[in-house]
């Protein structure tokens, strides 16, 4: 499928219960976290999916040495309990995949993704940048980052494969 097909489904998930971000570091450690923010589009002439991860998150540690990541969107109304769990528990303390009985599959270039999701983006990590407080609107700072020095790292994923199941 073309990466931009079903963009409305990705947006619906992000505006609702969220989507899963699956990251695996160079040592093979995997974590699944819930995200509510992402962007899909063309950057550097390539199909890119960007995700934002706070430096305080375990997933951030994994992404710093990862080759890629996936974003997995469940079917409407499904996996709400799992999304809530993955959004409230740290992968540093919990093996969320095992605790929830989730199944990982291996995709393109070894990128792991969750079996049972409706829409999956498999991405090669293509770049990263830290958001700077001084570059953000005052309203954004006061609402989302009142006491945070580095708000988020933005990870750019070159979309290798987008699939609807």
Structure description:
The protein is an alpha+beta fold and 165 residues long. It has a single domain (7-164), classed as Pnp Oxidase, Chain A, CATH 2.30.110.10. 21% of the residues lie in helices and 38% in strands. The chain has helices spanning 7-15, 58-63, 80-86, 96-100, 138-144; strands at residues 19-24, 30-35, 38-43, 46-53, 68-73, 104-106, 112-114, 119-130, 153-164. The chain is globular, with a radius of gyration of 15 Å.
Quickly list its features.
two-stranded antiparallel sheet; 5 helices; alpha+beta; 165 residues; Pnp Oxidase, Chain A; seven-stranded antiparallel sheet
Assembly state (oligomeric) = single chain
**How many separate domains?**
1
Q: Which strand order does the major sheet show?
A: 2-1-5-8-9-4-3
Helix content: 10-25%
Alpha plus pi helix count: 5
- Class by helix and strand content? alpha+beta
CATH class category: Mainly Beta
Estimate the mean pLDDT confidence: 95
Shape: globular
CATH architecture: Roll
Unreliable stretches (pLDDT < 50, length at least 5) are none
The CATH topology assignment is: Pnp Oxidase, Chain A
If you compute it from the alpha carbons, what radius of gyration comes out, rounded to the nearest whole angstrom?
15 Å
CATH superfamily: Electron Transport, Fmn-binding Protein, Chain A
What is the distance, rounded to the nearest whole angstrom, between the alpha carbons of the first and last residues? 10 Å
Reported for the largest beta sheet, the result is: 7 strands, antiparallel
How big a fraction of the residues is strand? 35-45%
Number of strands: 9
Give the ordered list of helices and strands.
Answer: HEEEEHEHHEEEHE
